[in-house]
Amino acid sequence: MAGASVSEARFRVGDGAEFVRFVAAMMAQLEYGCEPRGDGLDITSPFGVMRLRLEGDAVLLRVSAEGEGNLVLMRESAAYFLGQFRSDLANVTWSGAHRAGALPVNFRLGRVQSVEERGASYLRMTLAGEGFARFASGGLHFRLLRQKHRTGAPQWPRMNARGTTDWPEGAAALVDKVYTIRALDVETGTLVFDIFRHPGGFTSEWAETRPIGEVVGIMGPGGGWLIEREWALIGGDETALPAIARQLAAAKPGQGGKVFVLVGSEADVEDLPSGGDYEVTWLFRDRGDDLVAAMTGTEVDFGADYGVWFAASKDQAAAVRDYFRARAGFDRKRLQSVAYWF
Asked: Span 231-341: which CATH code?
């Protein structure tokens, strides 16, 4: 990875072989690329590369990524699985940790500029701020941070001396939710996203109050990027509609495929403009349409330049994933089927 930022951590785990097996199993669950290398592993994630090597009774973990923001994400991903193996390992110290007390490099402040109704089931929120150019590529999604309890000025995450992020706790704790960027204007400094309206939703109930002028934090980008295939089978429910709309809007001439979107009723149908040639089929909960059946009942030419993208509930994502993986000739690298809710 030419020009990448690099960071290392060295620590002891006891049984190194057991640790390697544990990490390999976790990477398989996350569907990250994971290749054995001698007594270690080479791991590829959406944010960078991780190299794990055993050195006697110690482990050397080396992460590399394009840009410091992605490097921090790699450190924190590693800290997560280290903590799953043994809780104290989540606090290992990384080389190059020189920003203690500073805001994360992938953090920006935004101010709520407007909230508008979008169809029957969404609110569209526009944030205004500076430094939004980083959200123009590298991921469809961002993390929206706001105060859980309004107790004075918000406290934001800060870098620690170990090279990872410390988050406010207790009364200062933040609501942290992931959303899809629908539109971004770097020149005017505005970021637009849609919030699905549902009872009990932390963000939807907050947005219903029209909190114009409130300051929020945003971090990212993250998550998957655009499907760059000539033909794609795309599907999802209401929670995935913003991501589907973003995919179609970014499509280029020569790209196309079939799209299935499950929503509550015909009142939720919206125009989905695209530069590509996609056949969009709307499915409706109020008439009992089956999203998984629509996906698995569609023929895919495995000899073409194809891709399959799906997002809905955990069970639905698993069903679509299992179906295509079982198909003879299907390339797993061309499938992204993720749970947006449980």
From this structure: 3.40.50.80
